[in-house]
Amino acid sequence: MLTALIVLALVAAALLIGAAWGLWAPLTEKLEGFLIAMAGGALIVSIMSELVERAAPQIPWLVLAGSLIAGACTFVALDKFIKRKLGAESGGGLLVSVTLDGIPENLALGVALIGASGLEVAALAGSIFLSNLPEAAGGAKGMLEDGYSKAKVFAIWAATAVLLVGAALLGNLALAGVAAPALATIRVFAAGVVAASLAIEVFPKAYDQDRYATGFAVALGLVAAQGLGQLGG
After folding, report:
1. Rounded alpha-carbon distances, angstroms, from residue 225 to 3, 117, 165
2. Is residue 123 within 8 Å of residue 225, measured between CB atoms?
3. Which one, of 164, 194, 223, 184, lies nearest residue 10 by Cα?
4. Phi/psi at 149 (5° precision)
5. What is d(CA 173, CA 70) in angstroms, rounded to the nearest whole number?
6. Contact present, 17 and 133 (Cβ < 8 Å)
7. Kind and range of the H or E run holding 232
């Protein structure tokens, strides 16, 4: 449990540090794009090694495929709704997007922690950290530009961090006794959510902000996540 709490604290810290960064030391557009692309590269490795590949031996391929596609469709529908209701570029819209994306992401992290050492989930936790950091920074900066006070923006992101840590704890505690096929299905569903978010939100935004350096940043993220995965065996 101590390992789980340390990992979850790291993930929550990314939102708090990112929000503080966006409020008091805003990222340049190019740096934000570079970090977002690097996070996306890391998540590619993580969703395959920590979610899909771990789930594959536990469920039939058709269940795996259906669950992954269902996760992707869920994100697409929610993301489209958010953009239509809150605006594609608003800080509030990004906050809701991070929250809805983060809930299944952190549920998966909690599931991954079941029976695993800290090193075995280091790649997934590190990738989520890299993903949350620039997203929180950009969202906090956007909410400040929308007219929110710095104190209110930071409080909102702190509450979001608590919510996402709660999702991870739920995944870790409530699902500890669930049968392996059910856990595998949840992992693959979360992988579909993250894959869709990479295609729709992460890489297009990164390229728009940092252009061709995005290619190098994605490769750097792949290398970082692969290195963490190697540490975990």
Report:
1. 19, 16, 21
2. yes
3. 164
4. -75, 155
5. 24
6. yes
7. none
- Cα gap 31→141, rounded to integer Å: 14
- 119 secondary structure, DSSP code: G
Give the integer Cα–Cα distance in Å for 14 and 64: 30
Report DSSP letters for 149-167, one per residue: -HHHHHHHHHHHHHHHHHH
Closest CA to 95 of 153, 31, 147: 153
What is the DSSP code (8-state) at residue 25?
Answer: S
Task: Report the distance separating Cα 56 and Cα 184, nearest Å.
Answer: 7
pTM of the entire predicted model:
0.78
Q: In the numeric block, which tokens belong to residue 187?
A: 């992992």
Could you give the 3-state DSSP secondary structure of residue 58? helix
| Length, in residues, of the chain | 233
Given a contact cutoff of 8 angstroms between Cβ atoms, the answer to whether 56 and 181 are in contact is no
**CA triple 64-185-196, angle to 5 deg:** 70
Q: How far apart are CA 224 and CA 233, in angstroms?
A: 15
Closest CA to 101 of 222, 206, 195: 195
Distance (Å, rounded) from C-alpha 230 to C-alpha 102?
25
Dist. CA 153–CA 209, nearest whole Å: 23
Cα–chain-centroid distance for residue 104? 9
Residue type, 31: L
The pLDDT value recorded for residue 25 is: 86
* Farthest-apart Cα atoms in the chain, separation: 50
Which residues of the chain register pLDDT less than 70?
Answer: 1-4, 85-98, 100-102, 104-105, 108, 112, 115-124, 127, 228-229, 231-233
